[in-house]
Amino acid sequence: MDRTIDHVAFGGLDLDTLRDAAADVGLTPTYGGEHATGTTHMAIVPFPDGSYLELIAPTPGTKPANAGFWPTHLAEDAGPAAWCLDVPDVRASAKAAIDAGVAIDGPHEAARERPDGRLVEWDMCFEGTDLRLPFNIRDRTPRSYRVRRTSDATLQGIQTVVIATADREETADLFAQRHRYPTPIDANGPFPHFSVIPGTPIALCEAAEGWLEDRVSSVGEGPCAFLLGVSDIEQARESLSLGPENHYDDRRMAWFDHDLFHRRLGVVERV
């Protein structure tokens, strides 16, 4: 299967707040418009490899609980909500999920209208009974309508999605069942009880106590942090506001230096 991340969704109560926080740390979000449901709108931070960070919040006047996408995460101002893979055929991917014994929600047709009036359309399908697995997307309009690559190479793309789970072994089995991902390897990382799945963009952390346990109780198992790839931490600091250096296996990483992003959005040196 394709193990390249299309985009990740970072949700909150107010899009302007998310955009301001992103700008404060050196990111450049562009308003992407309102989804066809009329209940959410979003902004995009694009990367050179074609992936992007989606900032998403309820539209003005919409209660977070009524949002069309990830209402629990938006209501809780939870940040990381979901991650997405681009697939050649959403229906074929949905059938593969069913064949693997995984429940699906979709395929669905979806759209949003950009500020310039252009309609962006795609098909999508969600998998599983929670948000550990990625949802799948396939553009019906040209992908350049949805996102344009940036030429700024400071951030190279989405490097890692960290999944918070109540049971790492059970979650590893789920990824093996659905995507044939290999066995995770314990690693030195930014969270306790941490492991990486070799050859994939996925890391797992077990929510055994503290704020991670509270998060899983509040919004369920699923992404708790996104790491963006950089070639060198010190070089990245020249244009990005980053906190203290941490370790991710044998590489260096740092969280963005903003309360909204601490332990939720950071950078890691690429291998």
Quick structural overview:
Residues 5-176 form the Glyoxalase-like domain. By secondary structure, the protein is of the alpha+beta class.
Would you give an account of this structure?
By secondary structure, the chain is an alpha+beta fold. The protein folds into two domains: 5-146, 2,3-Dihydroxybiphenyl 1,2-Dioxygenase, domain 1 (Roll), CATH 3.10.180.10; 157-269, 2,3-Dihydroxybiphenyl 1,2-Dioxygenase, domain 1, CATH 3.10.180. Helices cover 20% and strands 39% of the residues. The chain contains seven helices and 16 strands. It has helices spanning 15-24, 71-75, 90-99, 143-146, 168-179, 210-219, 233-236; strands at 5-11, 30-35, 40-46, 52-58, 79-86, 104-113, 119-127, 135-139, 157-165, 185-186, 194-196, 202-206, 222-230, 242-248, 251-256, 265-269. The strands form two sheets. The chain has an eight-stranded mixed β-barrel with strand order 1-4-3-2-6-7-8-5. β6 and β7 (119-127) form a beta hairpin. The longest helix has 12 residues, at 168-179.
Q: Could you list some keywords that capture this structure?
A:
271 residues; alpha+beta; 2,3-Dihydroxybiphenyl 1,2-Dioxygenase, domain 1; 8-stranded mixed β-barrel; 39% strand; Glyas_Bleomycin-R_OHBP_Dase; Glyoxalase-like_dom; VOC family protein
Query: H/E order of the elements?
Result: EHEEEHEHEEEHEHEEEHEHEEE
- How far apart the termini lie comes to 21 Å
Determine the CATH superfamily of the largest domain.
2,3-Dihydroxybiphenyl 1,2-Dioxygenase, domain 1
Mean model confidence by pLDDT? 95
| Adjacency order of strands in the biggest sheet | 1-4-3-2-6-7-8-5
CATH class annotation of the largest domain:
Alpha Beta
Task: Describe the sheet with the most strands.
Answer: 8 strands, mixed, barrel
Count of extended strands: 16
List the total number of helices.
7
Q: State the CATH architecture of the largest domain.
A: Roll
Classify the beta-strand content into a percent band: 35-45%
Overall body shape: globular
InterPro entries: Glyas_Bleomycin-R_OHBP_Dase, Glyoxalase-like_dom
Protein name: VOC family protein
Pfam families: Glyoxalase_3
Domain Glyoxalase-like: 5-176
